[in-house]
């Protein structure tokens, strides 16, 4: 059986496919006013967790920008060579390019690399249209690159720790299963039980069943539980042979009580002595003998 694909790294390079975090200077945060910047002088943020942009929605926004202009500025930071890097507002930036704008309003902030990562990721996490995998990747980036614990991350993004933990569990799914969540084939609730199945083929099998049979989350949990039970190897029954000394005691004790005596023990040494009886008279006789 093929095992679930495991992440090959936990940093931004692993998640974003080779993007390297620049060293950068550790500048204090300061705010600046709005400026109009040449759009060609602005580079996208390599820490952007969003992997998909709705082209139709972008075209609609581009048409609006052609008519009314870009009302809400993007947020950028200055980088080397007189250029700027987006912190937030990539969707507006892309639409402005599609609309043919050569300059756009921008709010310029001077922040260091870690602050830029935090601002970009938190801004994206707070959006409601990110898919669960993008949110999970954002949480993992913040934890890894900003050296945060789940409790600290919970405070920063205003989410319960259990919610964050559930999102992070999605990253333990196989790649095809993550794609199914990303593309809204199955919900996050359906996906979480699949984490218990380490085999990619089994995850795919359950996903097909969820889609074809329109399973509820509860039904999905039951399917996964049944599969796990089937996969668990049957525990071999180990027969424990009593020693000669114990068997001799069992026989002598039975003779003394004038009743059957059965001694059982398991591989750990635990066990029991059982004295069955078939009537009140036989029970009273056993009690007399024991007294």
How many beta-strand runs?
7
CATH architecture label name of the largest domain: Alpha-Beta Complex
What is the beta-strand fraction? 5-15%
Q: Largest beta sheet: what is the strand line-up?
A: 1-5-3-4-2
Uncertain stretches of 5 or more adjacent residues: 1-32
Q: Count of helical segments?
A: 13
Element string (H = helix, E = strand): HEEHEEHEHHHHHHHHHEEH
CATH third-level topology of the largest domain: Conserved hypothetical protein from pyrococcus furiosus pfu- 392566-001, ParB domain
On the 0-100 scale, what is the average pLDDT? 79
Alpha-carbon distance between the two ends: 62 Å
Helix content range of the residues, please?
A: 40-55%
- Supply Rg: 33 Å
Major β-sheet annotation: 5 strands, mixed
- Computed structural class: alpha/beta
Give the overall shape: elongated
The CATH class designation of the largest domain is Alpha Beta
Number of separate domains: 3
């Amino acid at each position: 059986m093929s095992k679930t694909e495991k992440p090959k790294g936990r940093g931004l390079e692993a998640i974003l496919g080779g993007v390297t975090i620049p060293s950068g200077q550790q500048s204090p945060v300061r705010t600046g006013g709005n400026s109009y910047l040449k759009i060609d002088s602005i580079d996208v943020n390599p820490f952007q967790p969003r992997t998909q942009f709705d082209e139709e929605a972008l075209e609609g926004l581009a048409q609006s920008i052609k008519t009314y202009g870009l009302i809400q500025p993007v947020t950028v930071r200055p980088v080397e060579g007189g250029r700027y890097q987006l912190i937030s507002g990539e969707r507006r930036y892309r639409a402005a390019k599609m609309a043919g704008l050569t300059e756009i309003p921008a709010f310029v902030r001077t922040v260091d690399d870690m602050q830029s990562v935090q601002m970009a990721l938190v801004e994206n996490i707070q959006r409601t249209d990110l898919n669960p995998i993008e949110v999970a990747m954002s949480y993992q980036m913040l934890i890894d690159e900003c050296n945060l614990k789940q409790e600290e991350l919970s405070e920063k993004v205003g989410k319960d720790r259990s919610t964050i933990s559930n999102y992070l569990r999605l990253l333990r799914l196989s790649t095809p299963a993550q794609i199914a969540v990303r593309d809204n084939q199955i919900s996050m609730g359906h996906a979480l039980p699949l984490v218990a199945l380490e085999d990619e083929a089994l995850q795919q099998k359950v996903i097909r069943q969820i889609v074809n049979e329109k399973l509820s989350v509860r039904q999905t949990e039951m399917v996964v539980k049944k599969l796990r039970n089937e996969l668990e190897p049957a525990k071999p029954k180990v027969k424990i042979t009593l020693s000669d000394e114990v068997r001799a005691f069992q026989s002598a004790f039975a003779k003394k009580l004038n009743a059957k005596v059965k001694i059982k023990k398991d591989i750990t040494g635990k066990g029991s002595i059982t004295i069955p009886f078939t009537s009140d008279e036989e029970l009273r006789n056993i009690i007399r003998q024991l007294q």
